[in-house]
Amino acid sequence: MKLTYLVIFSFLLCGTGGCFTVRSTKGFSYSKLSPVEYAAVLKDSSNYYLIDVRTAAEYNRSRMAGSVNYSYFNFHIGRDVDTLDRNKPVLVYCQTCHRSPLAARKMKKMGFRKIYDLKGGYKKWMASRSGL
Asked: Cα(109)–Cα(114) distance, rounded to whole angstroms?
């Protein structure tokens, strides 16, 4: 019985490992940025979408100024982002950088061309801000 659970767990772990990988391709750029790099992109431009893919409860507790909440778990991202310009850069984040790569993969399939992901998520972002 324990062996069965171990095999199932191993399969799930290996199967989901690829979920966190988003590859840049011709016509699509994906970058995981540290909080410092992410802040620089936010500061250097205003021509982007800032999308928080955490739950509404997480978003309502605390969020980045100017962000829009499209919860990954309620995954309306397909419907919610359908009207957005695919050529405009997207900055995406979640709590710990587990949901945001999944959202980025979906957005890549939808034709978005440039996505920046916050390495370590909002949790790391807040920790980096408290050190300033």
From this structure: 12
Question: Tell me: the pLDDT tens digits for 54-88?
Answer: 999 999 999 999 999 999 887 666 677 888 999 99
**Strand order through the sheet with 29-33:** 29-33, 114-118, 90-93, 49-52, 68-69
**Contact at 8 Å (CB) between 93 and 100?**
yes
What is the rounded radius of gyration, in angstroms, for the C-alpha atoms of the chain?
A: 16
Position 20 confidence tier, pLDDT thresholds 50, 70, 90: low
Looking at residue 119, what DSSP letter applies?
A: T
How far the first Cα of the chain sits from its last, in Å, is: 51
Token output for 78: 């397909």
Domain limits, the chain: 25-130
> From residue 63, how far is each of 25, 59, 109 by CA, in Å?
30, 5, 26
Domain 25-130: give its CATH superfamily: Rhodanese-like domain (3.40.250.10)
